[in-house]
Write a structure and sequence with these properties.
Layout lengths: L4 H15 L3 H17 L4 H8 L2 E6 L2 E6 H27 L5 H25 L17 H10 L6 H25 L6 H20 L4 H19 L4 H10 L8 H17 L10 H16 L3 H25 L8 H5 L2 H27 L11 H10 L4 H11 L3 H28 L1
Antiparallel strand pairs: 1-2
Helix pairs in contact: 2-6, 2-13, 4-7, 4-10, 4-13, 5-7, 5-15, 6-7, 8-9, 9-10, 11-12, 15-16, 15-18, 16-18, 17-18
């Protein structure tokens, strides 16, 4: 097949770049660095004011006004959580969380990596508004952690990458539950019931065989997400719920699909071609049928997950980092670094994650309830436990939910940056030597 120059020199290299597992992690890191630079440059006032620009959606008496910062955290991050929901459903149905024997270690390691950091944080901040930040060190930034792990290439076994992925997904599920149950404002029962009606519609559509993703998008965003936005429960939770209603079944089984493809390919071979670059009407009809059956052989869930990963990795997450990563350092930096909030976050992410993940894993294995993944040793588990201390995205997200006081927000962000940088470097070096 002859490749056009634009395919050979632009599209194929670009697709290869986008599909690289480390690329989105690097872009996220670059966005955070840019945010830090802007927040500490002569443009810092313009940077901070830009995210506070308010705009409104809706019509007539039904209108919602929020700052750009809130639309990013409530809207764009709902897309991120939607993709997490798709991953969770796939993993539970046929992935690393489908077999209880294989899932028990990453699930309980993830549980330990949430409970211990929260307790350590509360040791430093047991009362007042500062205590609301206990959820901040519970989170793991899967993009950063996996990006660093993939940098090591063949130095780490694939089973370790699978273990970290499953652990991070279990961690994300825990974070969603924490947000839903603990970081909500006053709940509007009417809005919540309205959301319940839209949820029933989505579930029934799944049962009736509706596979049009546009339908789920309209009902999910225009209905369920908006209801959650007005209900007091954080709307990102709606993203996960909608994801679980996406159909995960095929319309044509593998064997029938193969037979149909063979028949259509034979028909295409027998068709009389044009003497031009155009296909004949018969060939066009056959190609349409091939496309139809190809889509029928894929689940809407997997198709959506595959198509939305670039959107999340290359648009949603970098924008979130730009909007939330800008810390303006001042002469009080070391005072903020030594504050109880900052120290609680640092000790929670660095020590809490390590103790929780390693400790719960050792207890399970000592009780002979599970075993280490094949080809994985304890030093590699130590390295993964350190990488799990990279809280960044999710920790920044929960910070804005936990605090109202700007001083606490700043202290928490400083703690997140310091802890994430330390865990990333030490985790990488530990795994490199392992």
């Amino acid at each position: 097949m002859r490749l056009d120059p634009i395919d050979k020199y632009l599209l194929i290299p670009l697709n290869r770049f986008i599909s690289n597992s480390t690329t989105s992690g690097f872009l996220l890191f670059a966005s955070a660095i840019i945010a830090l630079i802007l927040a500490n440059s002569p443009l810092k006032q313009a940077y901070h004011h830009f995210w506070e620009y308010t705009f409104t959606i809706g019509f007539s008496d039904f209108m919602v006004s929020k700052s750009l910062h809130h639309w990013i955290n409530d809207g764009l991050m709902s897309i991120f959580f939607f993709v997490i929901g798709l991953e969770l459903k796939r993993e539970i149905m046929a992935g690393e969380l489908s077999n209880p024997k294989d899932a028990i270690l990453p699930i309980f390691a993830g549980l330990g990596g949430m409970v211990v950091p929260a307790l350590l944080y509360l040791l430093w901040n047991s009362t007042g508004e500062a205590s609301n930040g206990w959820g901040i060190p519970m989170a793991t930034d899967i993009a950063f952690a996996l990006g660093i792990l993939y940098l090591l290439g063949d130095r780490v076994p694939i089973s370790l990458k699978i273990f970290l992925t499953a652990l991070a997904i279990a961690d994300d599920l825990g974070a969603v539950m924490v947000i839903a149950f603990f970081y909500t404002s006053n709940i509007s029962v009417i809005s919540l019931l309205t959301g319940g009606v839209f949820l029933i519609v989505l579930v029934l559509a799944n049962r009736l065989g509706v596979r049009n993703v546009l339908f789920y998008g309209v009902i999910g965003i225009g209905g369920l997400w908006m209801a959650f936005l007005l209900s007091g429960i954080h709307p990102t939770v709606a993203g996960v719920i909608v994801a679980f209603t996406i159909p995960a079944n095929v319309k044509i089984e593998d064997e029938n699909f193969v037979k149909k493809m063979k028949t259509l390919i034979d028909e295409f071979k027998r068709s009389t071609p044009n003497e031009t670059t155009l296909v004949t009407p018969d060939q066009l009809h056959i190609l349409d049928e091939i496309r139809h059956y190809s889509r029928a052989a894929m689940t809407p869930l997997q198709r959506l997950e595959h198509s939305m990963h670039p959107l999340v990795g290359f648009v949603v997450m970098p924008i979130f980092a730009l909007a939330n990563g800008g810390i303006t350092f001042s002469s009080s930096f070391f005072d903020d670094l030594g504050s109880n909030v900052s120290l609680g976050v640092i000790f929670g992410l660095v020590l809490g994650k390590f103790i929780g993940i390693v400790g719960f894993s050792k207890i399970l294995i000592h009780l002979k309830l599970t075993t280490l993944p094949e080809g994985v040793n304890w030093r590699q588990i130590y390295g993964v436990a350190l990488l799990a201390g990279i809280g960044f995205t999710m920790s920044l997200f929960i910070t804005d939910l936990a605090f109202i006081d700007p001083a606490y927000i700043l202290q928490a962000k400083i703690g997140i940056f310091v802890a994430s940088l330390f865990c990333g470097i030490i985790g990488y070096l530990t795994l490199r030597k392992a």
